[in-house]
Amino acid sequence: MMSNYQEQRIIKLSLTSILIFIVTAFVFSLLTRSDAILFDGIYSLIGFCTSLMTLQVAKLAVKPDDDTFHFGYTILEPTLNLFKSLVMLVACCYAIMQGVSSLLTGGNPMAYGLAASYGLFASVGCFMTAWLMKRSNKEVNSGLVAVEIKTWFMDGLVSLSVFLGFALGWGLSQSQWSEYAPYVDPLTLIVIISLALPVPVKIMFDSFREVIAMAPPENIVEAIEQQVNESLAGVAFNETVVRVRKRGRNTYLLVHVVVKEDFKVNAIQELDTIRLECQNTLSSWNPEIVADILFTADSNIAQ
After folding, report:
1. Side-chain-side CA neighbours of residue 1 (13 Å)
2. 3-class SS at 98?
3. Which domains does the chain have, with CATH numbers?
4. Alpha-carbon distance 204 to 118, whole Å?
């Protein structure tokens, strides 16, 4: 419960910071007439809306299973992250078309000195927010917060490129090549989108894997299988068949233990004891693991 409270507190920090940056970006975009800063503000506004949804999902994710969601609400986490990444990608595609259009029509003259000041403020603020959230998330280890941190870090790179681009634009506007200065704003917009794209693309693929119930990467599955076998060290079994699914903050295991012919129990409670000890061992290794453990003598279960 405390972990969920801390998770929500971190997300509220993100929301507060986003509001500050949204207002700042829109004010500076009006003052400087910069499309790049306007995109930065719109991008932050999208982040604010999705963070509100994130806060609600964080509350639902810790609820137990019920008649509506038999396996709990954790599936909402990758679903939300997938939606968030798709919205970001749509915004990036639209903005890059605007940047190309502006380049082809002569660029965008603007107040570069003021715009560079915004870029410096925003980049420092974004990186600081990402650092504070990452430090707080070490105790919580929330997947939702981890996505928020990646988003803030990406925003920091975007803002840093805004600062560097507009500093270059200011330098050009004061030089003999001042006629090229209007092209800096659309070029900066295209650069920041190029920096921004890899993060939502990665989030999209990772979340999609979870939504369609794909197994985690092979090295993770192998590590889990090793832990399962070690937790069953006192059981006479031939092999284990472990099926793994990552769903939000939980990693779900369906474990079939193929027992040997001489495996015997005197009461069903003995199997319950084995299951409980195995679950406790796995949870101490990774608290996110939830396992269903079945015992069988059918060696064809792996096929």
Report:
1. 0
2. helix
3. 2-211 (1.20.1510.10), 218-302 (3.30.70.1350)
4. 30
Q: In angstroms, rounded to a whole number, what is the distance separating the alpha carbons of residues 291 and 229?
A: 13
Predicted structure pTM score: 0.65
Is the distance from CB of 17 to CB of 60 less than 8 angstroms? no
Helix (H, G, I), strand (E, B) or coil at 251: strand
Query: 132 pLDDT exceeds 80?
Result: yes
Structure tokens at 74: 């954790």
Question: What are the φ/ψ torsions at residue 142 (nearest 5 degrees)?
Answer: -90, 130
Q: Determine the average pLDDT of the residues in 16-20.
A: 87
Q: Is the pLDDT of residue 1 over 50?
A: no
Give the model's confidence band at 70: pLDDT under 50 very low, under 70 low, under 90 confident, else very high.
Answer: low
Band of the pLDDT at 303, cuts 50, 70, 90?
A: low
Q: Which residues of 184-220 are buried (b: 16+ CB within 10 A; e: fewer)?
A: bbbbbbbbbbeebbebbeebbebbebbeeeeebeeee
The count of other CB atoms within 10 Å of the CB of residue 150 is 16
| pLDDT for residue 4 | 65
Distance from C-alpha of 217 to C-alpha of 14, rounded to nearest angstrom: 30
Nearest to 34 by CA among 99, 127, 91, 90: 99
Cα–Cα distance measured from residue 94 to residue 74, given in angstroms and rounded to the nearest whole number: 32
CA distance 265 to 118: 71
- HEC string of 221-237 equals HHHHHHHHHHHCCCCCE
35, 72 Cβ separation under 8 angstroms: no
